[in-house]
Amino acid sequence: MLAEASYFGSSMSKTSPHAHTGPCRTPSNARTRLGAGGGPHRAARCRAPCPRGRPRLTESGLSMVDWHLVKGMKPPRTQREWEAEFRKYQQFPEFKILNRDMTLAEFKFIWYMEYSHRMWGRLVGLAYIVPAAYFWRKGWLSRPMKGCVLALCGLVCFQGLLGWYMVKSGLEEKPDSYDIPRVSQYRLAAHLGSALVLYSASLWTGLSLLLPQHKLPETHQLLRLRRFAHGTTALIFLTALSGAFVAGLDAGLVYNSFPKMGERWIPDDLLAFSPVLKNIFENPTTVQFDHRVLGIASVSAITALYLFSRKVPLPRRARIAVTSLLAVACLQVGLGISTLLLYVPTPLAATHQSGSLALLSTALWLLSELRRAPK
Ligand code: HEM
């Protein structure tokens, strides 16, 4: 999926507010908290931003320093073209600060990772636009469906542009910073948010077309259940969006204990920044705290939704959907806690990210099972 691929491809954060310079970016206050047990994990994570230390897709997002929709599809072929591409990369902060000793072969590796990610994005764009144009020409689309299709194709293009806008923030020179060049966490969250909207809209359109609708009696209880399910889905969306800030600021590394944050339920640097609002988006401690609270609130809301749904007569498919939602939520929270306790190993973080899509999909499935039948 374009959304997920793009997001993975650029998951790089920016300067930590816990002043810290140099390539090893575990925030300074975190280092004391991690304690002796954190040593090996911390060392592993500190190496992580180095493309040679770990081929995580997220570390290659800044290797292609320009973007052309058509021209960008042709990779360099000759040695001379590769050298020219490498010289371009050398003008940007990631090379200057992090990868000064990178060889051409190593550059080719990260370049191809980003290239395949961008080509995947183009393929996803085509997978939307080509069938849409074909169906349109054949006259197979109803009037409302034409609106849906146009909106989805527009969102795909917007997603691509947003991806480039995000990457650009990681290419900018920041005169007084020696920190690892990273994309803005705001743009990262916007990119993930728009990816989730695109994904949700596509899934919703598909489910509306494919799933036969139930003729549910419009009781008071059903109305309440439907409203509750809508609110819970919005909460899941918000939790996922807050996860982008955690990933963007490497905030999964500031307190690696659960349920308490270090020794405390509410850490003392929660509001260390001024003005207070800035903490919500820029202080890794607050960002992690918010994500925990939202994650726990999501799973609590889903449990309550499940219990409430038991009192409402529902068709079999809707029952399966609500039970699955509870199961996926428990799994997702378990994955989130494990990611935190194990100092954010890449495979687990990636599974946790996919888990958020699985959770959102199941919530949308439930909404689709509960939707009002047309009169
Ligand atoms: C409904 C529950 C949850 C949802 C939907 C959710 C979703 C997400 C998403 C979308 C990300 C960004 C993933 C990435 O880009 O790598 C994320 C990151 C993260 N989440 Fe959650 N999360 C949930 C619960 C939790 C809980 C309860 C915890 C721990 C207490 C947690 C810990 C983390 C950590 C440590 C990261 C950072 C991973 C990284 O740096 O790559 N999450 N979450």
Q: Write down the domain tally.
A: 2
Spatial extent as radius of gyration: 23 Å
Distance between the termini: 35 Å
Give the overall average pLDDT: 83
The helix/strand series, from N terminus to C terminus, equals: HHHHHHHHHHHHH
Q: How many helix segments?
A: 13
What would the principal axes of the Cα set say about the shape? flat
**How many β strands by DSSP?**
0
Please give the share of residues in helix. Answer: 55-70%
Ligand list: protoporphyrin IX containing FE
How many strands, what sense, and barrel or not for the largest sheet?
none
Q: Roughly what fraction of the amino acids lie in strands?
A: under 5%
Q: Segments where pLDDT lies below 50 for 5+ residues?
A: 1-58
Structural class comes to mainly alpha
Report on the structure:
The chain is mainly α. The protein has two domains: 1-186, no CATH class; 211-375, no CATH class. 65% of the residues lie in helices and 0% in strands. The chain is built from 13 helices and no strands. Helix 6 runs antiparallel to helix 7. The longest helix is centred in the N-terminal third of the chain and has 35 residues, at 104-138. The structure holds protoporphyrin IX containing FE. Residues 11, 236, 239-240, 243-244, 246-247, 252, 258, 291-292, 295-296, 298-299, 329, 332-333, 336-337, 339-340, 344, 349, 352-353, 356, 359 line the site of protoporphyrin IX containing FE (HEM). Protoporphyrin IX containing FE (HEM) binds at residues 11, 236, 239-240, 243-244, 246-247, 252, 258, 291-292, 295-296, 298-299, 329, 332-333, 336-337, 339-340, 344, 349, 352-353, 356, 359.
